[in-house]
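Example complex used in Figure S2.
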Amino acid sequence: MLNKLTKTTCTALSISAALFMAPAVNAETITIATVNNGDMITMKELSSDFEAKHPDIDLKWVTLEENILRQRVTTDVATKGGQYDVMTIGTYEVPIWGKQGWLTELDGLGPDYDEEDLLPAIRSGLSLNNKLYAAPFYGESSMVMYRKDLLEKAGLEMPTKPSWKFIRQAAKAMTDKDTGVYGICLRGKAGWGENTALITAMSNSFGARWFDENWKPQFNTQEWKDTLQYYVDVMEESGPPGASSNGFNENLALFQTGKCGIWIDATVAGAFVTNKKDSEVADKVGFAMAPDMDLGKRGNWLWAWTLAVPSSSKKADAAQKFISWATSKDYSALVAKEKGWAAVPPGTRTSLYENPKYMEAAPFAEITLASIESVDPKNPTVKPVPYVGVQFVAIPEFQGIGTAVGQQFSAALAGKMTVDQALANAQRLVERAMRKARYPK
Amino acid sequence: MATNSSSKSKVIYTLLAWTISAAIFFPILWTLLTSFKTEAEAISANPSLFMFDWTLENYRDVLERSPYFDHFWNSVVISVGSSLIGLLIAIPAAWSMAFVQSKRTKHLLMWMLSTKMLPPVGVLIPIYLLFRDFDLLDTKLGLVIVMTLINLPIMVWMLYTYFREIPNEILEASRMDGASISAEIFHVLLPIALPGIASTLLLNVILAWNEAFWTLILTAANAAPLTAFIASYSSPEGLFYAKLSAASAMAIAPILILGWFSQKQLVRGLTFGAVK
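Predicted assembly (717 residues):
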């Protein structure tokens, strides 16, 4: 009887002990905030591989539209809210947040991570004092996408490195407004990540800059006038109607349905326009580098979506393990196995562009790599500048002034004001913003 | 002659009402139709109203990718919870303002309403810090508190308007019979004002369900309601209109059904006291 009682007591104690011990072996949960882009959706889909390899880490996902995500993570990181352990942020945020001490240095990515394999242009934009503060998930530049059949019909041939002059000539020749085919589609929707990104990158090739070495706005210069005048003229001549409200998605729709001859936009669009499921012109698309004015700089930008750990995270080690997995060579191989080589996140690692299988599957890969490598965020334009960034200026004030300037450009495109008025307004509002922010600092 | 012109104007008003209703309903109809299209058809430059290949693929994708029912449950708890707690506070407040008025009651009512005019982003940082310090970030309780406070001025105003329509003599009679304040409110006032209370509750459930500033900022993975579910299907780079439409249709369906079945109460509640 006593023996039975002892046995029962021991069993009960063991169960209780096991229950009390359970939290100690419970998985740690990390919350990942990310944007709703195709590559991120794939990452979420394949994350079971990470969980299988790390049974001690559970993943929770917060997927949001880019602007909402930016608002949310900025609030959280600035107030040290600690809601997220991994944040998806862009190359604009990394240098600013890193300087503020809002990001954790990524020093726990593991011995097999091969940091040297990251593309130098991308890596330098994510480092402060040679320390990595965010790991690139995918990188992009911008390029020319064009309809080979329309260009051939016009009796022209696209050079690998076209000039803005040729683009205007080709766009005019490809335009047939009666059949609803427009020679060129460019972003017109106002926003620092929309038309301002395109026109700022364009302006670099015209020799313009946002600020001189003393942080004086430069919209009153001839270079800016040449840039904006070209943009408005070429769009009036060969652009689609209502272009001032067209962003990436609107132009993608126009191009995929055969309404555009030339589209200059993000290299990531290469995969969309050649996708036979969605694009009516999938087998008629050619690619070229962004145009130039023979001044030594091309009109392409540089952007990367990166994964970073906010300094408010209490699970930085687990977060770094996840980042290491999601931005590794093994992850690229996993995506290739599950979705095909064309679906591998582009623009981050040299080894991907040395892989013949990838180069064969992605006809735009060569141009993407050349475009990314041709950009120097520290010397984005012809003249020297005091800022970092190609299609943006990496200062906290840029989101506000970038959008305000974009509104002036959009109004000029819509014919609501002249190019001179738009630039005068841009100069005035940027001068005021910089004075309020007390530049130079 | 008079009858003829009266029936003519009746026809005109009816046509006008149908036109306005159709214009208001069209975006919802378009969202529903787009949710059954492929992504390529959804962005087509020449969209078709009904003649397209109908597909349920978007609904399947959305259900596979997101925990819809978790978001739905969060929306239910936040909107119903905040409306019920709001009622508990608003009923006594509106009673005192309607029946025990002081010189400053009108000012107080205006001040309460003025808080609705403040842009929410103006108080974002203090509220976020309070939530962080009280561990309320990404909790349903936190959202219930915020929604209650946000909608409280509207609840008090609506109930105040209904209560003002109830003759004071009825309440006085109950007091003469020896009713306490709570008995006066619960046994006399509430049964008379029930339609008004129901419409206040319904309207606030709808307002809380649709709120998309605080619900997006203060939640992450655990307490995110359907507004966050919709926001996860928009993208500046890529095709998403059909899936976004499917997510939107799934998010608004419950509240549309609720609105449809309670439209009589809602209309009665919203027009109560409008004509004297």
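The beta strands of chain A are 28-35, 57-64, 86-90, 127-128, 131-132, 135-147, 182-185, 260-266, 285-289, 302-308. Chain A has a mean pLDDT of 91.
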